[in-house]
Amino acid sequence: MPVCARESARLFDAFPRERACRKPDRRTTLGRPALRRLALGLALAAGGATASAQQLVVTEDLEIPAGWVEQWPDGVFVQSGTLTIGAGVVFELGNDAAFRVRGTSGGQIELLSTAAAPVTFRPLGTSWNGIELDGVDAKLRHVVVEGFLSTGVDVRNDAEVLISDAVIGPNSSPAGASTVVGIDARANSTAGPFPSVRVVRTTVGPLTGRSGASGSDGNQSARDADPGRSVIGINGVNLTELVVVSSFVGPLAGGDGGNGFDGGNGGTGGTGSGGTVISPTGSTGGPGGNGENGGEGGDGGDVTGIRFGGSTTGDARLYIANTVITELTNGKGGNAGDGGSGGRGGRGGNGVSFTPVGGNGGRGGRGGNGGSGGIGGDAGIANAIDVQADNAIATIAHNTIYDIRAEAFRGTSGEGGSPGTGGAGGSGGDGIFSDGSGG
User: Fold this and answer.
1) What is the pLDDT of residues 102-128, one digit of tens each?
2) From CA 266, how far away is CA 310, in angstroms rounded?
3) Distances from the Cα of 38 to the Cαs of 73, 79, 216, in angstroms?
4) How many other C-beta atoms can be found within 10 angstroms of the C-beta atom of residue 383?
5) How far is the C-alpha of 404 from the C-alpha of 308, rounded, in Å?
6) pLDDT, tens digit, for every residue of 323-362?
7) Alpha helices in 152-238 (DSSP H)
8) Are 334 and 290 spatial neighbours (Cβ–Cβ below 8 Å)?
9) Is 328 helix (H, G, I), strand (E, B) or coil?
10) What DSSP letter does each residue of 92-125 carry, written as one string?
C-alpha cells in the first residue's frame, strides 16, 4: 500500500517541511510461526531489514502489522528507513538489549498505536535497556515502557520528541550501578546539538533505585558500604526545551544505603619467654592486637521528580503545568559497623626454677585498643522539581505536589570496640633457698 504524500511538521518548528510522497518498491513484513507469531530466526523478504535469531536491524522501510509480538534477545536497531509499528504490537527485548533509532543515519519510527491498543515495550527476560532515540524526530503516543533496567526513554542530541498518553514504568527489579531515570534527555556534548522533549498526559513511575551493598570482611574499603542508587522521573540535561503538561510523576523511591561491616577483634598477644640461669626473670607478654574500625554506612539515594539542567549555550525553556508529582521517598542511610574489641595481652614468661633464688615471672602484655565505630550513612535528598540551569526560562504553574518524604533516615553510627584486657603475669620460679614472685 503506498504511503500518501503529506506535509509533516517538525514537532516544534513554526514552519512545516515537505515530506516527499514515497511509494516503496516493496514493503516487507516479518514472517511468523502460526501459533506464537514470533519474529525469531526468520529471514525477512525483499531486503527491508536483516534478521537473525537474536537481532532485528532495519535498513529500509518496514511495517509490523497490528497485534504482532516481536521477541528480539539482542534488540532492535532502526539504522535507516522508517519502521512503522501497528497498533497493539508488543516488543520483548532481552537482557542488555535496547530498542535503538538512529536519526543521524536516517532511521525513523512511526507508531499507529491507539488508546485501546497501545504499543508495549517490555523485557523478554528479567530486564532490558530501554528506548534510545538519537537525533530523531519521533512521536511516542500510546506506549507502555516497562521492565527496563536504568532508563525507560533515552533522548539524545538534536532529537525532537513528543511523548504523550504513555506509561513509563515500573522498572525491573533494581540492579546495577546506574541511576534509574524514566525519561532522560541530553546532548552527548556540552556544545550540542541539543534535544527538545515534550511530555503530555504521561505517567512516569513507579521507579525504584537499588539499595547499596553492605560491607564485607576485609580491609577498610571493603568494610565500607555502597550508597543507594538515585531515581529521577524526568531528567533534562543539556537540552533547549523541556515541557511537561498534564502528567503524573510518582511514586519514586531512592535506594537505601548498605550497612557497614563490623571491625574485627584484635588478636591475643604472644606469651613472654621464660627466664634463664643468666636472666632468671621471665619476659613481658606481647601486647594484644588493636581492634579494627567499623565500616561506614552507605548514603541513601536521592529522589527527584523533574530535574532541568538546561543547555550550556543560549536560553533553555522549562514549562511544567497541570502535573502531579507525588510519593517521592529518599533512600535511608545505612547503619555503620561497630569497632572491633582490642585483643588480650599475652601472658608473661615464667621465672626460672631450680636456682638458689627462683626467677620472677614476667609481666602480662597490655590489652589492645578497641576499634572506632563507623559513621552512619546520610539520607538521600528528595526534590519535587530541581532547576539547575542559570539560563533557564522557567514557567511552573498549576501543579500539585504532595507526599514528598524527605525524612532524615540517617544511619546509626557504630559503637567503638572495648579495649582488650592485660595479659596474666608469668609465675615465679621455684628457688632452692627462695621462690621468685609472680608477674
Assistant:
1) 988 899 999 999 999 999 999 998 999
2) 54
3) 12, 22, 45
4) 19
5) 18
6) 999 999 999 999 999 999 998 988 877 878 777 776 777 7
7) 220-223
8) no
9) strand
10) EE-TT--EEEEGGGTEEEEE---SSS-EEEEESS
